[in-house]
Automatic annotation (TrEMBL):
Transmembrane segments: 7-25
Official protein name in the record: Neutral/alkaline non-lysosomal ceramidase N-terminal domain-containing protein
Pfam families recorded: Ceramidase_alk (PF04734)
Organism of origin: Sphingobacterium humi
Keyword Transmembrane helix applies: yes
Domain of life (superkingdom): Bacteria
Alphabetized UniProt keyword annotations: Membrane, Transmembrane, Transmembrane helix
Domain Neutral/alkaline non-lysosomal ceramidase N-terminal: 63-297
InterPro entries, per database record: NEUT/ALK_ceramidase_N
Length: 494
């Protein structure tokens, strides 16, 4: 009897001590097993109306006459039980900030996801109409102007995509990885053996897209980033929900001038769906390709004579190849049942580059030339005289640009509203506080090219005033703010 009483007392003591000590256990030990991670994905159609101008090249935008493939807003929502993050990647060359802001306000009102937790980005397809304004408005200062018809439609459909993804939320697992695919990325800026003249009449060391087989080619002016990073999400019973990829490669093109197309971004997304989606699957699967730091990267090997491709043929070849490589890498992922989600966003004030007196005088001289006159120095000088004049007359002296950072477990994602160079993305990846880091460009706005200061010194299309609008130190300031945001989230995660 005495032994029985001792045993009962021991059981009571053990039980009491468990309930007393349970609150003192590490939070992660308690919460990770009790919280449920959820994810949902969806897509909504954002194909513009026929008749609008297809933008992305010089000259008068050709009218959209045919839809080769529909354009979409592809959304992914993650939920850790306390926080939600929303990604919306849109088949568009670039979306004005006030359009992104309008969409985010709708999303917040409908879903209660905070604005700073919503990332909206364009893919940079060159076969879509403008979401930055029509005609000359596209390059003007439009912050306080009402949205045009397509911008209103786009903002609403972006919000629809997020609401549908939330409708599809279910318990899920998440993992991430990357694969190196160097054979499709080439730096398009080249040192030349002889300097080249720019539209302003200045000789430069570097030229963008110097031409295949150009005998004056010397060497590339910068690196490439061959790493394709991706996030893979599946339901708890193993059904694929979404795959969000990030590759530092510009659009590929090869699209007839009057066609609307989402370019290789959509070909990749559709290929991933055909590979991953299972027969009889009850969960909608969405493949997504976001644009990394590709401001100086394209798919043209100027050192090779190359083959000629039929329309759409090259983008199919590239997209199918990278999809196959991603699928192989995905098989090695170890999925996590729960991760902490964090987000930060802040506006960064940047100075606008304005033309000095000499450049303003040059612009007036060029614009005063009779119609059909021979250019003074360059075939694009009238185009840049117009851009420089618009920049001087319409743009403020400084602007605020949104810089955003997400943290998913120990994965970090930066969001920059510019065409960002590969070397900036490579620098951000060197972050010891994360298992992986990548950057989404054209995110939460579209403000032009973002060359690092060293590239400004070399010249070339991406540095020309009117192509680039912000101060030459802008990339350094953006990187500093992103690294500050990454550090803050890393410390909060501990």
């Amino acid at each position: 009897m005495e032994k029985l009483n001792k045993h009962i007392n021991w059981v009571i003591l053990y039980t009491l001590s468990f309930f007393i000590l349970w609150p003192l256990l590490p939070v992660a030990q308690q919460s990770n097993s009790s919280k449920t991670f959820k994810a949902g994905a969806a897509l909504s159609n954002i194909t513009p109306f026929l008749g609008g101008g297809i933008v992305g090249n010089f000259g008068e935008p050709p009218a959209a006459k045919y839809v080769h493939d529909e354009l979409h807003a592809r959304s992914l929502v993650l939920d850790d039980g306390s926080n939600k993050l929303a990604f919306v990647i849109c088949d568009n060359i670039g979306i004005a900030r006030h359009v992104c802001d309008a969409a985010k306000q709708q999303i917040q009102a409908r879903t209660q996801i905070p604005v700073q937790n919503i990332l909206i980005a364009g893919t940079h397809t060159h076969s879509a109409t403008s979401a930055e304004g029509e005609g000359l408005r596209r390059r003007g200062w439009n912050k306080d102007r009402p949205l045009d018809e397509y911008q209103q439609f786009l903002a609403h459909r972006i919000a629809d995509a997020v609401e549908m993804a939330i409708h599809n939320l279910q318990p899920a697992e998440i993992g991430w990885s990357s694969v190196h695919i160097p054979e499709h990325v080439f730096n398009r800026r080249w040192y030349l053996k002889k300097p080249a003249i720019n539209p302003f009449g200045v000789m430069e060391q570097v030229k963008m897209n110097p031409g295949v087989g150009n005998p004056d080619l010397d060497k590339p002016a910068g690196p490439t980033d061959p790493e394709l990073s991706f996030i893979s999400i599946q339901s708890t019973n193993g059904e694929p929900i979404a795959l969000l990829a990030n590759y530092s490669l510009h659009y590929i093109g090869g699209v007839p001038m009057h066609d609307i197309s989402a370019d290789y971004f959509a070909v990749f997304a559709n290929k991933m769906k055909s590979i991953l989606q299972q027969k009889g699957q009850t969960v909608p699967f969405v493949g997504i390709m976001s644009n990394g730091t590709s401001g100086d990267i394209n798919n043209i090997d100027v050192k090779a004579t190359g083959s000629k491709f039929k329309p759409y043929e090259k983008m199919e070849l590239v997209a199918n190849d990278i999809a196959d490589k991603v699928f192989k890498a995905q098989q090695q992922i170890r999925y996590q049942p729960w991760v902490k989600l964090q987000a930060q966003q802040a506006d960064l004030t940047l100075q606008i580059r304005k033309p000095d007196q000499q450049l303003s005088a040059w612009a007036k001289r060029v614009l005063a030339l009779p119609e059909g006159s021979k250019p003074l120095n360059h075939s694009l000088e009238k185009t840049y005289a117009e851009r420089v004049t618009q920049l001087a007359n319409e743009w403020p002296n400084e602007i605020a640009v949104p810089i955003q950072a997400f943290r998913i477990g120990d994965l970090q994602i930066g969001a920059i509203p510019f065409e960002t160079f590969a070397e900036t993305g490579l620098h951000l990846k060197q972050n010891p506080a994360a298992s992986k880091t990548f950057t989404i460009s054209f995110a939460n706005g579209s403000f032009g090219y973002l060359p690092p200061p060293e590239q400004h010194a070399l010249g070339g299309y991406e540095t020309w005033l009117g192509t680039n609008r912000v101060e030459k130190e802008a990339s350094r300031k953006i990187v500093a703010l992103l690294e500050k945001q990454f550090k803050a989230m890393s410390q909060q995660a501990k």
